[in-house]
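Chapter review. Work through the record for NADH:flavin oxidoreductase before attempting the end-of-chapter questions.
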Amino acid sequence: MSTETLFRPFSLKSLNIKNRIVMAPMTRSFSPAGVPTADVAAYYSRRAAGEVGLILSEGTVIDRVSSSNDANIPHFYGDAALAGWKEVVNSVHHSGGSMGPQIWHMGIMDNHHSGWVPSAPFEGPSDLNRPGFSNGVAMTQDDIEAAIKAYGSAAADAKRLGFDCVELHGAHGYLIDQFFWEGTNNRTDSYGGKTLNERTKFAVEVVKEVRRQVGEDFTIILRLSQWKPSDYTLQMAKTPQEMEQWLQPLVDAGVDIFHCSQRRFWEPEFEDSDLNFAGWAKKITGKATITVGSVGLSGEFLAAFKGESSEPSSLEELLRRMDRGDFDLVAVGRPLLADAKWVQKIRDERTAELKGFSREALMQLL
Ligand SMILES: Cc1cc2nc3c(=O)[nH]c(=O)nc-3n(C[C@H](O)[C@H](O)[C@H](O)COP(=O)(O)O)c2cc1C
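Structure tokens for NADH:flavin oxidoreductase:
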């Protein structure tokens, strides 16, 4: 099995990376009061030294009072947090890597088990985190405009601090995705609507504002998922036509790369084709895509939170799809969380040294 296809360089606008492997964004909650520490910088820098092509940061929240439900999740606003991020990106560059922050607003959330709550209620398109579960307030027009501006200034800060690109978190049931999904968006103004195409308006305005703030040459990645934490099998776009009505406005707004989140990358998106989400997104839009989901592991990540361990598994199917041109980049989560040297082990075929993943790896910044 040749892994050569993973080790071709990739360039798109401001992003120039030495291989096709992306560290998936993974929340770690090691940033007290929202400020990334020297340990956080060292954690990412070890992945850069380990030859990860592109590191995407853990989700880092925008400047809205209730954008987070956890005091230890990093902010992407305020002098102290941005100075922390400057140290992170400098040390990643020093170790030869490239990096983009994942810009995040959680929207309506469950309360965190720590008991910490923000000083304003959670905000979303409606008061719902999932059908039947209310835990916050519906955003006013002013809230929406302020949130869009806050995404834009976070992206501008990413560029100013020297990051190579920016990723917007539009997946997994958080704010942008709450606008996409009819199960959480029951608005009757122009941000709601019966079709996915209509409910894409908030994301379109976010992407446009980000593009306006960063200019044409800075790479914008948008992460999307069909599945929700409350429903792993949910399909918002049930056909390629619906997917086109979802993605094309986002392309027109300025997205360069779609990061297509699945729990298992080999699962086909629609009937009569083995193409996965990233495969369809690339076919429909012609844009570059990132695939993700259980690459190199036997079990998927949501089961990992419930304590299920995973063993290393073959990359053959991934390489087959990549050689076929289904997607451009491959994001890897848990293997890179547990082992900063995963990329080098894959490249050098040191398969006996590959580790699995168990929940203990979450307890510290390895
Ligand atoms: C500990 C942990 C934290 C995560 N946090 C985020 C996050 O902040 N943003 C995000 O988009 N996805 C997050 N994810 C999902 C991962 O980015 C990735 O999509 C998922 O783990 C599947 O990839 P894997 O099978 O290679 O682990 C997280 C996953 C894990 C395991």
